[in-house]
């Protein structure tokens, strides 16, 4: 009876011990965490997410470290820009732990360490810029801060995912100065725009005058070409007429000469009669005789040509 009871107790103790070994030796790590394992107070290994085994009673979980991305609480920094303007910057830092062992054995307070490093780096980055550049270059400054802060935090097993300058706070005097500067800049741009418009108007007017002068010169040239062509045609006609007259003289002799002279007299008389201010025309008797002779001479020439 006593032996049975003792056997039962031993069996129970063995079962409890086995359960304890399982509980102590088997570790299930969630996806968002890693476990830092120590043996006799010394770092041994880091357990990733999933099912893992450790040596019971010798190994222990010293730290449970979250690997989720974290955000440092928003902090305010007083900085002096390159143009000696004091402003306050509101900033925040996003980071995550990539080396759990370094994060727990190389630094005690991660948030405070990142805040101290970020404050120094933000002041250095903002001091390189003027106030206007500081307000318009947040993206480039964020990249510079994140890059420099990553170099400082790498030894702690931390990855700086991004930094954000959330606001630039200036005092009222600086705001008034900015407003005056903005108004002056607007006035300057307006004056430049007016001057550019006037300059453009003068240029267009000059171009229009030049274009008109070119067209007038072209018209004069065309008119000169037309006059020259008319003179050329008239000269060619006179030359042809002279040639015909010379040919007629060479064939008919004196009658052809008399015919040409009489013809020119008749043409001149017709021109005088056609004048608008001609009221009364006195024709000499020799001219009227020439007109009659002209008809007789024309008939003579015509008959001579037929006989030839």
From TrEMBL:
Transmembrane segment boundaries: 6-23
CDD domains, A to Z: SPFH_paraslipin (cd08829)
Gene3D superfamilies assigned: Band 7 domain
Superkingdom in the source lineage: Bacteria
Membrane topology, record value: Single-pass membrane protein
Pfam families reported in the protein's UniProt record: Band_7
Main location per the UniProt record: membrane
Signal peptide: none
Full protein name: SPFH/Band 7/PHB domain protein
